Amino acid sequence: MRNSFAFRQAIHRPFFWLFLTVLVALATSCQKQTPQPVDVGTPQALYGQLFYDVQKSGIFPDSKTFVDCVPKESPAEIRKAYKAIAAKDDTQVLKQFVEKHFIIPTYHPISSPDTLPIREHIRNLWTELLRQPDVAHSGTLIPLPNMYVVPGGRFREVYYWDSYFTMLGLAADGRVDIINSMIDNFAYLINTIRFIPNGNRTYYLTRSQPPFFALMVSLLAGLKKDDSVYVHYLPYMVEEYQFWMHGADSVSEAKPALGHVVRMDDGTLLNRYHDKGNFPRSEAYREDVKTVRKALALNPSLDTLKMYRDIRSAAESGWDFSSRWLKETPDGSFPLYSIHTTDIVPVDLNALMYNMEKTIAHAYQVKGDSVSSARFEQKAQKRLEGLNRYCWNADKGYYFDYDYTTGKQTDVISLAASYPLFFHMASAEQAAGVKKIIGDELLKAGGVVTTPYNTGQQWDAPNGWAPLQWMTIQGLRNYDFNALASEIKQRWMKVNEEVYRKYHRMEEKYNVVNPEVPGGGGEYPNQDGFGWTNGVYQRLAAEK
Fold first, then answer.
1. Is 39 one of the catalytic residues?
2. Coil, helix or strand for 534?
3. Which of 366, 372, 487, 507 is deepest in the core (most CB within 10 A)?
């Protein structure tokens, strides 16, 4: 196995971008068409002071717009031209400069004839959201060698965990070719940069997202009815596992956490979300600076570097943002400035890691390597025991995230508890407890709400999200709680259909408490498109 540590060191060095360019050029094992080497870098590195001035100016309502712009000249030429501009504090001059030197991404809502049935609309959307192999340019896009589906709206690139749920719909519509290409793209990213980033943008190279790659491999193997698929992707699954477990040999009682790995009090190794960066996100620079300044006004001794890392790590979780990562104040609120993501051992992440270990074990068994298979089975068993020890609450009958810095579970009820059911990790008694709280606390008019807390964050009430509907429905089905699973399915599909009937669009998220009101919260408006909503709806609609 190649040395992943070298990459993790390289990402902090000046020659990292040259390093990545060479890797892009050399890696060919998963390619059907090899992109040319590309001048890559973070927006800060590419554009220098221009980046900071644009992001602070607010000339674009969405901070992501500028970092997705494609430069018309080399970044060096743009930096030189900008240095010559005198009136840098004039927003109009700044806007004109950007318009002159960049192709600014535009977005046009995807519309369909009023009479088009929803499933046919989604089938048409696959074409709208499909991207062909990328042509290298000097912007922030990391070129991918095969076709892929983007979520839609402001999300113009592939996203890691979104893609699994998108694939469910592609499978229902018989597009195994696209699924195969997308998995090959992820294998290509593992092969070149040693992990799957949040998305194929250079500003995402400090973090990943919930590790669904092993599930994608299982999906493809099932569609092809061919277990050799596991063997083919085994090296990439192992490489990704090494990324998430990097530091496992270095954690100790004195230093219990390093990177994504947390050593628990009894020596069990579990995982957390952990972005490598401790600075504002490029794609949300203005928002992050504002959040940290507000926190500093309340607490001048705040560790701002940790706060930036916690914000970024919440983005790695995919739940950006949620009460899961926030501390509750005496008045019952969950302010964003209380974020402490890296203190938390999450239920869902460790269930995904359990599945990764089980899938790798199966792949080794198919390959004929029973020793390696047994080793990963043992890892999975230890993780299951650790999850039960630290995250299962027998008194409440539910799984809760665990704060390793306090040695206590959090009190936040969330749909992360459905993951152990999805992966068959729960006992019958545990599953019954989870089913009860989901039915009592989280079932709403339009499906299941992510958490019962109305914090203003998008991964809290009143929103419901397609991926969590699917994980919950399937988790309940695994333990024969079919009535509740069917109720969630019908309510979720109905809200999708009602919004489509009114607005002819598939949305990123939905208000499941009051379906008459659009989903909201978070840092940007509700998006349409929308990859994972399309995928889950199409998969549920295809069921007999």
1. no
2. helix
3. 507
